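Data availability excerpt. The first of two example chains:
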Amino acid sequence: MDANTGAQKQFKTELAYNESFLWIGRPKRGIVFTIGDMIFIPISIIWCYNILKALLDINKSPITFFIAPIFLTIGLYIGIGRLFWDRALRRNTLYGITATRIIIEEGIFSEDVSSYDINSIPKIEISERYDSWGTITLNTDTTWFGRNGIRLRGASKLPSLTLIENVREVYNLILKLKNN
């Protein structure tokens, strides 16, 4: 059984009567480094080094024993923990496109399924890498802020098909379905 057959079986409950998938995919597997990691990882190394240095200092204050582990945990998460969290989230993510909808299933501790009517998505953006992997962002926010790419504090992230292979082909499929 190939990956798409398994994905279709997993996704079958999300289909309406007489609906079928035109495309099914998953995000890139494994740990993925981004440009931001060039900043986050070195800063977290320096952060953790300074916390460990404070913990090993001879003239320790008693408060150091309570505060330092909290800051050490934050530094470890910023440096490497978020990479493993992202990997786990992508491992449990599945994307599907039908003639009328884009379906996204994701979650680590629960299965969250979102369905977006292709014709009601006002803006679709593509970010393509040199190796044909990339991300398609569905700007479903119809407020003035959302249409102009401004996200208010506390607003949820825009839905996207993240790190998919042959992103340009999938993007063209969505545009073709949207224009029909």
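And the second chain:
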Amino acid sequence: MAVQLQPKSNSRNVAGVSMAPMIDMVFLLLVFFMTASAMSQAGSKRELELPDSPQAKVAQDFSGRIIVSIDEFGQAYLGNQAVEMLELSEALSTFSEETSKPKLTIRASKETPFSAIKATMRIAAAAGISDYLYATYQVGGN
């Protein structure tokens, strides 16, 4: 039994993919994720008047970092939620246990007494967090 091969015809049946809908979809996804990212950060931190610093540097790595804000009255906040020192201690301890290299960003108002910042640093140290970043506004220079 012989198999006969038929010669290829000159007509092409090419299954093409139109790029226009794919490009539209990429732009829609881009807009979606940009909006979702902005919305997820919308209420994530307390609005404070941070101190100015000409030597301020922008952090490159925000992974494994928790943000604690302290207002001018010494009240600590996780996100927009006011927390007492005991709650802060528990939250930082839990964060330290769940994160391999825990880091802390302290955002404090210009008028925040240093005693409140120092108390937060002590709580963080007791929880096992020793990598601190103090948030300031960059002015002039760099």
